[in-house]
Amino acid sequence: MLTTERMRLRHLRSADLDLLDELNHDPDVMRYIDWQPPSREALAAEIAELLAVSENHPGHGRFIAEDHNGVFLGWFGLILLADGPSAPSLGYRLRPAHWGRGLASEGGRALVDHAFNSLGAERVTADTMFVNAASRRVMEKCGLRYRRTFHQRFDNPLPGTEHGEVWYEVTRDEWARSDPRDG
Q: Where would one find the signal peptide in this protein (predicted)?
């Protein structure tokens, strides 16, 4: 478990199914995500897969964010991509009631720090739609820097897809030189 000033980030559990299902069905949360919420059965299978990844790669995977009273805020993740544990991808989703308070940046910085100082990552990446200005700002506050814009083809593109996706990254050396108060 990781602890920040205002939250705890604990590992995902099977019992979190209802919390994730609710978050996945919130249209404000899903506004910039080209993805249909899975059925409860598919979500349960996804959780089982995420738990297996966490077991095989301790410290990676999905983290449930709760305030210090145990109230569910959302989730954060260090997701393994093609480059494996040396370059996890940062992800996050918060309930809209908790937006605009710096919680995404606070949790994200904690996971970036965890990736470098506990897991030995060489870089941390993240991506979002170009038009998702709030998420881009979170990435910047987490120490990640814009690297490139790229375009993907979607069967049912979301509004703003024509502007592309943006890729952010921070290397171990950049993180070591940064001031944690910059976020």
A: none
